[in-house]
User: What shape does this take?
Amino acid sequence: KAGVTQTPRYLIKTRGQQVTLSCSPISGHRSVSWYQQTPGQGLQFLFEYFSETQRNKGNFPGRFSGRQFSNSRSEMNVSTLELGDSALYLCASSLGVFGNQPQHFGDGTRLSIL
Amino acid sequence: DAKTTQPNSMESNEEEPVHLPCNHSTISGTDYIHWYRQLPSQGPEYVIHGLTSNVNNRMASLAIAEDRKSSTLILHRATLRDAAVYYCILRGGNAGNMLTFGGGTRLMVKP
Assistant: This one.
């Protein structure tokens, strides 16, 4: 069974540009969540989608946005990139939204801002 | 979300059991206890979860205190591949998939 796939694995951008990251969940999973991981802040929740609807959003500026498609695939977009956006962006998928359902993570997209 | 407290780091010898503790004194009755681990250069990996009873799977065992204010992840025989950061996280029964990660415990395994 294929795991969570994130593309691209690595990305280099410059300040002011925008970027779109993609996540394909495990087949049959309807929930997708996004996280940002940095050495200073650790793993922080960005947002969560279920059946194309955003259910929760973390404490990030409006430059960070996302969406989920009818096939459960998800994208996140960061506009007007800043140096501080350099991070590992992780996607996780789950069957649903209940507390007894584990999340399965991809290996992330490492974004570097020059 | 209720908070969890874990030691920053622990050390173990290869092929010996490892007990990773987690305190969660403000846990609510509907919170599940989840454990994830993150190996270097990888995303977090689900390990195990439980509600009230002890749980076993092929990766580990989860021992939950009777009052549920603490739990212990047990790796029965540590291998070098088990060297990772281990996160103990509480999830509400119907709270969605927002995981709140703390600092976790960095497990070092000595050959």
In short: The two ends of chain B are 38 Å apart (CA to CA).
